[in-house]
Amino acid sequence: MLKQMDINCDMGESFGNWTMGDDAGMMPYITTANVACGFHASDPLTMIGTVKLANQHSIAVGAHPGLPDLLGFGRRAMNITPEDAYAYVVYQVGALQASLKMQGMHLHHIKPHGAFYSVLKAQMELAEAVAEAIEKLSDTPMLYWPAPTSSALPTACKKRGIRVVGEIYPDLHYAADGSLVIQRHKHETDVAFACSQVQRYVQTGKVEAMDGSLVELDAESLCIHGDGPNSVAVAHAVQQTLKTIGCKIAPVLQ
What pTM was estimated for this model as a whole? Predict the structure, then answer.
């Protein structure tokens, strides 16, 4: 049985008059926030405000950089070069680091978003460029990545000695090969099933796939999406599940 788990959530994804998710409602139930940095979502006021809110709740903050696609929420594919990928990470993470500095905080990790994640999962040349950026941006670099952590970017990061933290997603479904089944439209999460996935993983290191098989994964963190219809209820229930089974809830140590 695992003795400790982190709970993370993508946050700060509102911009202007448009609101995404209930960040304030999620904060009491998580230990780590992945904050959008302005390309796929967020704006200066949102980023600074999210960091300030996280600081008030003693939440560790990581960067959630995406492709420059505000209208598509960073989910549309783009043809980019390694130089692009490197610059996108440096630019976005640098903005978040400045916001963190204003609160006396430090960058905890980096977690790519959406279509940026997809290309970094598959294309080693892009992955190597981003791994270089991650290594140079922090004295204690760390990548958050959906388990299994065997694709391009986590492999490139491990070669550089960058710590890779695997994640599981109790509010999503898994295929038999361990890959996530991404939903096109948000729907209410089955809270009981999410909690059973968490308990199963903590106790056995496995999650249940859609075909009923059990898949072994390498994770230290649970990611709960904050933009679902019942996200706060899911986060609360997951937190209570971890407490009930005696698993410590804390950020991953750098």
Answer: 0.96
